[in-house]
Amino acid sequence: MTLPEGNPEANAPAHVTPVEREFAAPPEPSPVSPVFDELTRARTKEIISLYPQSRSALLPLLHLVQSVEGHVSQNGIRYCAEALGLSTAEVSAVATFYTMYKRSPCGEHLVSVCTNTLCAALGGDDIYARLRTHLGSADRPLGHEETAGEPGTTGSITLEHAECLAACDLAPVLQVNYEYFDNQTVDSAVELVDALRSGERPQPTRGAPLTDLRTVELELAGFTDEAAPVDETARVEGPSSAIESVRGARLAEENGWTAPAMPALPPVMPALPEKK
Ligand code: FES
Questions:
Q1: Can you tell me the distance from the alpha carbon of 230 to that of 234, in angstroms, rounded to the nearest whole number?
Q2: Cα(57) to centroid of ligand 1, in Å?
Q3: Closest ligand 1 atom to the C-alpha of 114?
Q4: Could you tell me the residue ranges of all domains in the chain?
Q5: Nearest atom, ligand 1, residue 167 CA
Q6: How far apart are CA 239 and CA 207, in angstroms?
Q7: Residue 197 CB: number of other CB atoms within 10 A?
Q8: What separation in Å is there between the alpha carbon of 178 and the centre of ligand 1?
Q9: What superkingdom heads the lineage (predicted)?
Q10: From the CA of 55, how far away is ligand 1's center (Å)?
Q11: Interval between CA 173 and ligand 1 midpoint (Å)
């Protein structure tokens, strides 16, 4: 692969590395990464070109891989390693550290139920417990990151419990493909997953219209799915904040309250001990 101009790694030795061979190869499937087609390779180059150091492209590249595979397979790990000149151990370390990268095939939708303290106390634990049996069975409740239905097919759902989803004022919350559904109850959550299973895409409480997990992964990698264009106006016109979240700011505005002015000079910080 010819690295983009301006990339310091472009000064690498002139010999053809395995990475270059892999990426310079014609579009027919490679034995290593058969699912990564010409478009994915072009997108890979585009992502890498955005960073002065190619290894910095790993996080969006993992999202790109996930948009193609529906998870990050061992093949995907190898693909990223080869594209970025990293070892597979380095890529695996990152892919297994961040919970957004899934190591087994996911459903059309990812349902994340917040079971952190506030949501749990207000019903999040009950919602998660009920969805486990509703999507699985009483004898065999669905486990964390397990999928109801054939992964990738319409209506299939991967269920997970999540730590604080940063919407505690709207607890209990859940997300579908990282879009928020606020103030949930056991019944509303069951209704929501039933709608997803029947192929519907209910409107999230806030943010963009619902798509599917792979489309969201592509967006996280920095691309939109040209084959399935979305209504851009709808994407930006959805409510982005909740009344509860901005109540403090509104109260301050109504009452003329302001924060104390920042000091003209930054406060003197105590010296740090010398780094050993
Ligand atoms: S505890 Fe659930 S969003 Fe914070």
A1: 8
A2: 30
A3: 2
A4: 8-97, 109-237
A5: 3
A6: 6
A7: 19
A8: 14
A9: Bacteria
A10: 33
A11: 7
211 CB within 6 A, ligand 1:
no
In the Cβ-directed half-sphere of 52, how many Cα atoms lie within 13 Å? 0
User: If you write DSSP's letter for every residue of 115-146 in order, what string do you get?
Assistant: -SHHHIIIIIHHHHHHHHHHHS-SSSPPPTTE
Pocket of ligand 1 contains residue 116 by CB under 6 Å: yes
Residue 159, ligand 1, Cβ within 6 A:
no
Indicate the CATH number for domain 109-237.
3.40.30.10
pTM to 2 decimal places:
0.80
52: left (phi over 0), alpha (psi -120 to 50) or beta: alpha
| % of the chain surpassing 70 pLDDT | 84
d(CA 158, CA 96) in angstroms, rounded, equals 17
Question: Has residue 17 got a pLDDT over 70?
Answer: no
Query: For residue 4, which amino acid is it?
Result: P
Task: Tell how far the Cα of 245 is from the centroid of ligand 1, in angstroms.
Answer: 13
The Cα–Cα gap between 107 and 136 comes to 14
Q: Token match 């004898």: residue?
A: 139
Other C-beta atoms closer than 10 Å to the C-beta of 9 total 14
Beta strands in the chain (DSSP E): 109-114, 146-148, 157-162, 174-176, 179-181
Query: Measured from the CA of 170, which atom of ligand 1 is nearest?
Result: 3
Encode pLDDT of 203-244 as tens digits.
Answer: 999 988 999 999 999 999 999 876 665 666 766 677 788 888
